[in-house]
């Protein structure tokens, strides 16, 4: 039975609250098995007999939307895809010298919603002090030497990044170690 990882967008931020215990219960009741979550930001692993990631995505979004009262966009990955994106992140050279308080983020995209080549070029060419990014496959990897709320990158690429969901690289590393097997 296939295993999937769902990264939920905008859960438990901005007044959009969904208790992880309720989420696990709702997904289990819907027919998914071995449902587990990691922290409160909507990281979920489960097994299902469904073999199509698109079907799994629709199922998860319908179940969660029905129970929590708002849309819950979900990025569905296989463990191998999660591991691959994490390996990409680990293989990228830091654009800034160590010790500048760098933070790393990864924005994940649904299949078919990745930045187009032109947007990927604009992301790679971004030249704001203390900010750098690169698009690879279904992810945009971001480095900041300032708080993310102060970064100009996110507002500049709001439309490009909007269908995605972002995670701190520390969370991505924890998920890859725990679920990327």
Could you please describe the fold and organization of this structure?
With 181 residues, the chain is α+β, with helices and mostly antiparallel strands. The chain folds into two domains: 3-77, SP0830-like domains (Alpha-Beta Plaits, 2-Layer Sandwich), CATH 3.30.70; 80-179, no CATH class. Helices cover 36% and strands 24% of the residues. It has seven helices and eight strands. A four-stranded antiparallel beta sheet has the order 2-3-1-4. The chain is globular and about 50 Å long. The mean pLDDT is 93.
Query: Beta-strand percentage?
Result: 15-25%
Biggest beta sheet summary: 4 strands, antiparallel
Number of strands: 8
Structural class: alpha+beta
Keywords:
Alpha-Beta Plaits; globular; alpha+beta; 7 helices; 2 domains; DUF1697; 4-stranded antiparallel β-sheet; DUF1697 domain-containing protein; 181 residues
Can I get a quick summary?
The protein is α+β, with helices and mostly antiparallel strands and 181 residues long.
Blueprint (SSEs and pairs):
Layout: E1 3-8, H1 20-29, E2 33-38, E3 43-47, H2 53-68, E4 74-77, H3 79-91, E5 103-108, H4 117-124, E6 131-136, E7 139-144, H5 153-156, H6 158-161, E8 165-168, H7 169-179
Antiparallel strand pairs: 1-3, 1-4, 2-3, 5-7, 5-8, 6-7
Helix pairs in contact: 3-7
